[in-house]
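Quick one, tokens below. Sequence please?
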């Protein structure tokens, strides 16, 4: 019985490869931040997985993202405060934590980027904004 359990663990470990698209996931997040800074969030909608919009209307999300600059002023810096990556049989997940520093305040942000097994493209599957931190 122990041999089968050990064999199962070895086979499972062989199937899971390290999440190796960190640079591409980072570039996706930077593209999103550039769209937010330019108040052109509608151009970034293609970066999101369709499942993200299951509970959030696209128009409302665009309004929220574009409203950040209107509310807090120019985006001065996106400071990464944490990063985590996970490789699982269902796909790779990259979780980024940022502090978006604007001219008149800051917003805490968590972005989850995924590449599901069988899919080629990385997409934003989760995006949480926590505000305000007025300066």
């Amino acid at each position: 019985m122990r041999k089968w359990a050990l064999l199962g663990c070895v086979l499972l470990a062989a199937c899971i490869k390290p999440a190796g698209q960190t640079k591409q996931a980072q570039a996706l997040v930077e593209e999103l931040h550039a769209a937010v800074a330019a108040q052109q969030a509608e151009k970034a909608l293609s970066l999101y997985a369709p499942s993200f919009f299951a509970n959030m209307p696209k128009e409302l999300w665009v309004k929220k993202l574009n409203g950040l600059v209107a509310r807090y002023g120019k985006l001065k810096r996106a400071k990464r405060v944490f990063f985590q990556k996970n490789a699982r049989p269902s796909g790779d997940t990259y979780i980024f934590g940022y502090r978006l520093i604007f001219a008149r305040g800051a917003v805490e942000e968590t972005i989850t980027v995924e590449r599901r097994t069988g899919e080629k493209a990385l997409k934003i599957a989760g995006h949480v904004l926590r505000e305000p931190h007025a300066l």
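Residues 22-37 form the longest helix (16 residues). Strands lie at 75-88, 91-102, 105-116, 123-134.
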